[in-house]
């Protein structure tokens, strides 16, 4: 029996013609014109575009200031400045990672996000408190959104003794991946940090996702070291590099060698198209060569900056805008990063828009995918496993405490 019928919709990549989409038991049961069903709920799509649920595969929901009074940005320009400022502000504000992450998730659901992979701060100063907070939020939001956790050493690994043990404990307790941060720029010990992270991944079979802001050759050499370890430990397909600013500033021959290595070991690259003059990976080139790409909001309204909004259609717009994309096929690459790319990294079961896929989808007021990215208009309906979770831009989730 059909549970929900969407009439008069256009399905991304399924041609221009309007059709109906039937949902049963949390899955897409049929797509076609004039479906007649006994569905208890029928929604007039009025020509809206159906896209799969948006995937925010690089967020930091534990330390957002979402829902709190406006906080003027105070941090200095470097990564270290931002880390020090963050520790100071978070200590002063004393916010609950569980409540803050729930506040942001509610907003993300309203914007059509059905899957989030979040890096959660772990270190000697906060221990596993953020991790346990986000885990509790994940449990209470299971029916609304899928959440995956990367155990993230924000303040460094080798310069903070005890961090590796905490990261491993988080993986034992259910973190899906272990994170890292600038093995050279923060730790000044790339061998120590990378050997430690890869050993955890090897012991537990978890993924690795490393924040790499280090630029130029420092970043490129770090990627060489990540490649060596991925190959030596047989971790192909389990490793991602986030930001990888250096890929946007290398001379062609050096970049080409790195691309070959990324392809050989199926190492994925995450970019959120950073603001200002910050270099970032050449999306069109990497896509055309076949490198796996995904995206995320990164920090949303936190002490790193006030501008990110947690809207993955807007994120796709920013990816396209900063990349100088104008033609529809290029703009669609940005939307694929915000949907299929992130879903692949998360191993999202049944993700997609074909019959039999999980019914995680979004109705957008747009004719085409490129228009949806260009205008990132209101989301008319958001469906998670067949259930409506947001309508006309409003989440149906009750507000966080
Ligand atoms: Zn990040």
UniProtKB/TrEMBL annotation:
Q: Where does the source fall among the domains of life?
A: Bacteria
Q: Name one GO molecular function term.
A: hydrolase activity, acting on carbon-nitrogen (but not peptide) bonds, in cyclic amidines
Residues in domain Amidohydrolase?
101-390
State the protein's name.
Answer: Cytosine deaminase
Write down the species.
Thalassobaculum fulvum
Lineage, top ranks? Bacteria, Pseudomonadati, Pseudomonadota, Alphaproteobacteria, Rhodospirillales
